[in-house]
Design a protein that fits this description.
With 143 residues, the chain is an alpha+beta fold. Helix content is 42%, strand content 15%.
């Protein structure tokens, strides 16, 4: 995993979800800094105080965010963004992580071990896909 750190890839386990992220990459919702005017409307609208201003820009604490979407609705500059825009970056982060693993001394120059790793990674990402699918299918039972 040391190679992953060198490339700026962070594999983190949070309270709520496991994320593979590039350092500095935001998760849902996130503020596109170049569009944020620092007006503070979203800060006042947040019912749980999950938004603060840093360097004259809004920052969302995703551990505190309850995903109500008020910040999206009230932002006059449309700076509060949805995580779907991050999908290409997250895919690239996943691929970069796997590339780093393939370059690890344990796997490097050993096609058999590399093939085994690729099967393991397919299982890993398939599991994530299945968890998301089953969660989506079960959401109706909560309301």
């Amino acid at each position: 995993m040391a190679d992953a750190w060198r490339l700026g890839i962070e594999y983190s386990l949070s309270r709520r979800t496991r994320n593979l992220q590039k350092k500095g990459e935001e998760s849902m919702p996130w503020v596109k800094a170049e569009d944020c005017t620092g007006c503070g409307v979203c800060i006042g609208a947040c019912p749980v105080g999950a938004i603060e201003k840093q360097d004259a820009k809004a920052i969302i604490d995703n551990e505190e965010c309850i995903r109500c979407g008020l910040c999206h609705r009230v932002c006059p500059s449309d700076a509060v963004r949805h995580d779907a825009e991050q999908i290409p970056a997250q895919v690239e982060a996943n691929l970069a992580w796997v590339r780093c693993l393939l370059e690890h001394d344990y796997y490097a120059n050993d096609p058999e071990k590399q093939a085994w790793l690729m099967k393991r990674m397919a299982k890993h990402f398939t599991k994530d896909l299945n968890v998301a699918k089953q969660t989506l299918e079960s959401l109706d039972s909560l309301a």
